[in-house]
Amino acid sequence: MQSWEWGEFRGKRQPINRIENMLVVWTRIKYTPWLFGYIPMGKLPSYEDIKLLSNLGKKRKAIGIRMEPNVLKQDIKIDGLVIGRPLFKKKTYWWDLTKNEEELLKAMHPKGRYNIKVALKHGVEVCEDNSDEAFENYLDLMFEGTTKRQGIYSHSRNYHRQLWDSLKGEIAHLWIAELNGKILAANLIFEFKDNILHCEKIYYAYGASALEHKEVMAPTLLLWEIAKFYKYKGIKIFDLWGAEEGKGFSRFKSQFGADLVEAIGTFDLPINKPLYWVFRIAEEVRWRILRILK
Fold this sequence. Notes:
Layout: H1 4-11, E1 16-19, E2 22-28, E3 35-40, H2 47-59, E4 62-68, E5 82-83, E6 91-96, H3 101-107, H4 110-122, E7 125-128, H5 132-150, H6 157-167, E8 172-179, E9 182-194, E10 199-209, H7 218-233, E11 237-239, H8 248-254, E12 259-262, E13 267-270, H9 273-293
Parallel strand pairs: 3-4, 10-11
Antiparallel strand pairs: 1-2, 2-3, 4-13, 5-13, 6-11, 6-12, 7-8, 8-9, 9-10
Helix pairs in contact: 1-6, 4-7
């Protein structure tokens, strides 16, 4: 999410800055003149980076800048930063696609292998379909199926459409699983070079599935066929993007035998310290209310 294309997409919706290979996305705090910055999946900032970001934040009249470095967990302290509230899940699954098919299948949970066979037996078919019609079907599955079933918060349809218009066929690829011509599951996959890890990766960005015909296990076959396609394309890591103990989406991802890894976490750079701490209190109160209303 530090790619040039992602920055162009975000720049259509809100102010951005690029500084020392870091993309900073700015959001205006409602009913105030203040901004808050975010650096998604960037590098681990150096002391010099912190100074540059602090100066940029002051020019932008920002309260603070949040960052989630694309770095695995390590014992490190960066002066000037405090622990922030996570936007992305700290843990995720990395699927090693350098293994051969036999090794990948062997590493799966037996239920995962069984579900693939069930889907194939029922005649579920998988393909990449970047048509606008398929994308609208994906949105219907997302908002009429997945978000309701899991009780999760999601960006608006307009956000997803703008993302698709900006990134389709380049970074963003839509894969679907069909049964008798009806789409039962759809995954939006991001493909780009990870400049932090210096390798080509794909990301399981969004997934959606129908409320009906769950017995044919279309989502499991869909993710397996995607992994095989990109494996033979030379991709080394499939990031399943997010894991949380006890959640259904994590149980689904865990069946594939991918490695559970933990990122270094979320950090904030306070710019206006008094206002920053007021913001943090208000942020916690807001999320507690949302959880109650959920």
